[in-house]
Amino acid sequence: AENHENFLKCLSLQSDTISKVIYTQNNSSYSSVLKSSIQNLVFSTPTNQKPPFIITPFHVSEIQAAIKCSKKSGLQIRVRSGGHDLEGLSSISDVPFIIVDLINFSEISVNAEAKTAWVQSGATVGQLNYRIAEKSQNLLAFPVGTCPGVAVGGHFSGGGYGALLRKY
């Protein structure tokens, strides 16, 4: 409990906006935010340790504050990108932890002429495919997984596979 209080105090000193993006177990939305990307119900059982805090930042400064304060408070960080996590690596831990959910980092910018795209980790591969098709009239593609609900951050860090991956 002391670590949790220290964490909250540290956050309030680090960021003016953190109160708008933090969910505690006392918050009425906590359970729905926690379960929002848990696809395997094994990871949402009562026996699994739940994080005391879930942070859904809008600004990099809020991520920095969460990292700094979790380190000071001895809380591990689990990062999720807002899509789903079949292995539960972003939802469970054997030690006290927080979740930093990057679902609000979902901007996508596609430049079809340059054949480039900038995408934030909270965007899903379905959103990315849609934006690429929209900007290139279906002339360009990106080798993403077959499930459109996987977030780009999870896909880029090793999750998901799709038809174009063998060649690209």
UniProtKB/TrEMBL annotation:
InterPro entries: FAD-bd_PCMH, FAD-bd_PCMH-like_sf, FAD-bd_PCMH_sub1, FAD-bd_PCMH_sub2, Oxid_FAD_bind_N, Oxy_OxRdtase_FAD_BS. It holds the Pfam family FAD_binding_4. One of its GO terms (molecular function) is FAD binding. Keywords: Cell wall, Disulfide bond, FAD, Flavoprotein, Glycoprotein, Nucleotide-binding, Oxidoreductase, Secreted, Signal. Its cofactor is FAD. It is found in: Secreted, Cell wall. This is FAD-binding PCMH-type domain-containing protein. The lineage of its organism: Eukaryota, Viridiplantae, Streptophyta, Embryophyta, Tracheophyta.
